Structure formats: structure tokens, C-alpha cells
């Protein structure tokens, strides 16, 4: 197995699917000549040509709308939002047309929108958001949030082959920071299967995306400090999400912390907490806790941004509170 | 450069030059009658309380819709809107399934999951509209992009109303199509009113078709009461796109002889305009053309076609009414796609 960065794994998955399936094409702002704002499609245009790696006008609805139309005609488009934040400009199309077209009209729409998301480097209010929760409320869309290079590749290939519109949130702060072994060859990771990132027995942290690594660091420090054994469960996909894995982990640990980088109110953590409260109330030894960003826009200046994004210490405090029960 | 004003089609010879023989002329007439007949019967069913929700018609727009629908090729794709029943009819949509759609039955195209004219027979290359107009304009552009990527000689047609041209997605669609010179035709059903809002409060330019210049392609204005002129201009635009000539913006100046929907009495339409529209009824205009130019039309063909259409629609309503309502237990079905559907024949 080769060691790849998270970003390289995304590029690999996309490139291999384009080689394997001529229906797959890439569309987005600056994805062609420039290779994408984060260079995920660097070199693609010289390999696949200017139409299969298509530089679009600065028009997110046109990009996503084109994916709907092209996928309806049997293509497998992969769109890039330059930043996940800009998907707000295509919200109407995704929610109004793409999410509902199969339910009401029976048309499969096999396309993927890649969304470089997340903060951690002073991107400010418009280049740092994690808008996955708002889409989780929309039936008809699938939502993927990988945290490791292996998952990034396997879930992207799965997303491209999935017959539904898939929003693929790739966390910018993981692009070059996170490396890992990635199997070679043609393989995929099915949606809706959580992964135990770190096994533990005293409490469960359910999380996804970049927060998997924050949770892992907090769990390591808790173990080192006083032997608290924390299980970190990486959901990997939000729609569908693996209720069974969450409930079975909670059945063993009896304590649950939900952690996400998106803001707190009506974030997806609330859905997980409510489900566990409904399904496993009698198994719990402590209240379900949430650690999430506060309900503010993502601030720009480093000390403010640090106060916004959940930090290892925030997670440790929640671990301590759960441990006190 | 401003939009070209298309001339009327005054003789069968001019229609022949646009590829229509006498049987085509009569078929177009039949399509017009079926189009209006479906909506008239739907309106009655609605008033009888048999159709849930609201009910929209395209009365006055039949010629625009049939003219463009008839000009499309077999493998072309279209995204019609709520005044464009004629597109569905010209493409071969079965009327009984349209009534089943109105009635919320399982044989409606949306299987009861969506209502009224939010429907399409995808096997006929039609895409079901949504309420947020012109949301399907970028979809048509995407279809055209797929045709371009595969070098297929196919064309996409996107409809919008005059009101929908105020929206950003309309601009995004036309701009993208112009940049890439994609095989797509943009049709505007300009009936003068977006719900109650007149053209003068909707856009400041003289003609919507003039905007085509800014997108790098041709704009054409055509009289929507002249089905043969609409057909000729649509055919030109579609064949131009098919041959690599890029998009066209076709503004059909049409009529809205009824309110936005059946609940709307259109009191805001200036006094006398409805009467003026009635005098320009596109079906009456075409009937007069056929009576003048097609031997035997006024004497027998007209009556024979009307009778045939009446019988067709009687049977369609009867058959639709036999279609069952959806089983509530199926409410969860179809939010996501079964992967096996992807390789179904209609998904070409």
C-alpha cells in the first residue's frame, strides 16, 4: 500500500474513475488549466482534455444544474465547488431540483459535488464553513465526510458510482496534513458504515471529518492522563448514517459525546443525540453531550477562530464531565 | 444587434419549406385540439372537486408549445413549463396518463408524488418541471453538455416564462451555453404577465430576445398565435444547434387567456385585453388557415378530427379514473435510487 495524503487520495480516486469510466467528467471553477484552487485536479486537463475537465463560468447554479442535466442523460459528473461555502449559491438547485427529481419524477441523478470545507487557517466567514447539517435535512441527497486518505478515496469512488446526488465534503485542513496508507486497485467503501477510529470502553465520541483527529488526540490525552478509555467512532457518511454502530457502541460505553465542527443549534449532532435518547435511553449513564462550534459565523482572526472551532481541550472537558457520572 | 422579428407563415408553400406536408398540418391541428381539450376537461374535473391542489392551464399558448414540440427531433430533450401542455402532446404523451397525473393516481407520471403539470414522460425526452422557474434552464444546458461530450447530434430545449427571465439561474444557463456554444434552444413563453406582474415591472429592456446578443447568440421574436411561424423558427434554431451553430433565444409572444391558475380571475389584466386576446385565439387562427388552404377541411376533416379528439379525451378521462390512488404504505419509496435503475433503457 502506498502512503498518500488526503488530497492525493482524492485526486487518485477521481483520476482512476475517469480512466475507468468515460462517462465521468469534472466541472467547476478553475479546475482545468489551474488544476483547482487546491490542486485536486492538477494535471487532469492534460490527460483528459478541456471538455472532460471543464472550466466553468463563475456560476454555481449553472455548474450543479449542468450536473443534473448531464447525469439525467447518463453521464457521471463530478462538480467542484471552489469552497464548500459557495454551495449556498447552488442550494436552490440541489434542494429544489436534484434532491426531489427521483422521488417525484423517477429520474436518477448520478452526480457528485465535491465541497472543500472546514476551517483552521483564517479563511473567515466565507471560506471555512461545514454546511453538511443543513443538507442532512433534505431527503434525496447523500452526504459524505471522509477523515482519512483511505476513506477519502474509497468513499469518493463509491460516490461517483452511486446513482444519487452525493455531496462529498472534503476537509481542507486535512488535505496535506493527514497521510495514510491507501490500498491500490479498484475498491470502494459502502455508505452508511461507521468506522471505529479508536476502540474504547468508557465513553463514545461520535464524529466525522476533521473532528475525528481532534477526538483522537483528546482520547489519547485522556488515556495517558488517567487511563480513560474513549471510543472514537467516525460516521464517515451523514446520509445515510450508521445508527446501528452508534447504538451498539453506546450500549457498551453507556456515555455519548457528539462532536462536530459545524455550529451547534440544529447541527447533525442534535439528530444523533435525539436518536440515541429515543432508542437507548435506558442504557445511558450520563446525559448526551455535544461539543460543536458556537452559533456564530466563522470568525477570521486566529484567536477568535480558535475559540470557534472545537479544540482538543474542549473535548477533554466534555470527557471529564461524562467521566464524572 | 437586436432580435430578429420572424415573419408570419401565410401559405402552405411556406409551411412546406419548413418541412411540413398536409398531413403534418392536420396533425398539428389535432395536437392543438388535444392540448386545449385536456386542459378544458381538467378544469371541469377541478371544479368538480376531483383534482387535488391547484390547476393551471396554458390557454392561449397552445400554438407556441405545439409549434416548438413538433419541431423537436426524436432524440431531442425538452424541459417544458406549466403553459406547455402542447409540448407533451406533440411529443406523444398519452392523455390518459395526464389525467391520472391531475387526479393524483399511480399512473400519473409522478405516481402521485407531484401534481398538476409537474410531469413528464421521460421516455419521450421530457423532463418534469419544478415550481421554481426557470430551474430547468441549467438542466437543459447540462443535457446539451452531455450531448456535446458524447458528440451526439441531439439538442435540448429549455422553456421559461417572461417572469423567470428575471432570475439568476436563467442568466447562468444562457451565459454558460453561450460560452460553450452548446446545442440548446431557450424558449420564452412571453404572455405578458408573471402571475399579476406585467412585463413593464419585470424587465426594462424592449424585447427579451434582445438579451441574446449579450450571450453571444441569436435572438428571435415570433408571434405565438402563429403555430407555423413558431414551428419554422423553432426548427431553424434546433437544426442550427444540432449542426454546431450554438444556442438561440426564441421569444414567443403569446397570450394568457386565463388567470395564473384557476383560482385567479386575472382582474389586474387591463380592461379589454381578454377580449382582444380572444379575437387572436391561436387555434381559431389556425383553423381559418386550414379552412382556406386545405381542400375539404372545413367541409369534413375539421369535424372528423374534432370528433376523434373528443372520443380520445372521453376515453382518457375514463381510463384515468380507473387508475388507483397511491398506497400510503409507499410514501417512503423512491427518495433514493435503486442502482439497478441506472441501466434502464430510458436512461440513455
From TrEMBL, chain B:
It catalyses: N(6)-[(R)-lipoyl]-L-lysyl-[protein] + 3-methyl-2-oxobutanoate + H(+) = N(6)-[(R)-S(8)-2-methylpropanoyldihydrolipoyl]-L-lysyl-[protein] + CO2. GO terms for biological process: branched-chain amino acid catabolic process. Residues 34-328 form the Dehydrogenase E1 component domain. It comes from the Bacteria. Its EC number is 1.2.4.4. Pfam families: E1_dh (PF00676). Its cofactor is thiamine diphosphate. Keywords: Oxidoreductase, Thiamine pyrophosphate. GO terms for molecular function: branched-chain 2-oxo acid dehydrogenase activity; magnesium ion binding. InterPro entries: Alpha-ketoacid_DH_E1_comp, DH_E1, THDP-binding. The branched-chain alpha-keto dehydrogenase complex catalyzes the overall conversion of alpha-keto acids to acyl-CoA and CO(2). It contains multiple copies of three enzymatic components: branched-chain alpha-keto acid decarboxylase (E1), lipoamide acyltransferase (E2) and lipoamide dehydrogenase (E3). Belongs to the BCKDHA family. This is 2-oxoisovalerate dehydrogenase subunit alpha. It comes from uncultured Thermoleophilia bacterium.
